[in-house]
Amino acid sequence: MKKIEAIIRLTKYEEVRKALADQDITFFSYWDVRGVGTAVEGHLYRGNVYDTSIIERRLISIVVRDENVDKTVEAIIMAARTGEIGDGRIFIADVETTFRIRTGEAGPETLYIK
Questions:
Q1: Which residue, among 29, 27, 16, has the nearest Cα to 112 in the 3D structure?
Q2: What is the rounded CA–CA span in Å between residue 41 and residue 16?
Q3: Which of 58, 59, 67, 102 registers the highest number of CB atoms within 10 A of its CB?
């Protein structure tokens, strides 16, 4: 099993969510996050635009079976890409095991994607 974390633009979240749903990836967590990077975004305040290095993004966290990693990553990349600096990053890490709290089951069968 793998944990996939993707940091994407806020404006691309709905497209990514739909792309994941098209691949039957319908269960994941997300957070609004801020970070510092090379991209600079302009913020409008009282008619003035201010550049800032603080970048607002969305972090998506998904745990999938090994056979679903490629299609999950591809869906995120295709939906989140604009071709500009600041499109985000994807990180993949091994997951040793999972448990379903309700039933006590352990292992890949606890994940929703078969």
A1: 27
A2: 21
A3: 58
Place of tokens 């295709």: 78
The structure tokens listed for 35 are 């970070």
CA distance 75 to 25: 10
Query: CATH for 2-110?
Result: 3.30.70.120
Q: Note the pLDDT tens digit of each residue in 2-57.
A: 999 999 999 999 999 999 999 999 889 999 998 776 666 666 666 666 665 667 89
Look up residue 105 and give its amino acid: E
3-state secondary structure 11-31: HHHHHHHHHHHHCCCCCCEEE
Single-letter amino acid, residue 81:
R
In three-state secondary structure terms, 6 is: strand
Q: How far apart are CA 53 and CA 33, in angstroms?
A: 14
Q: Which two tokens stand for residue 62?
A: 């998904």
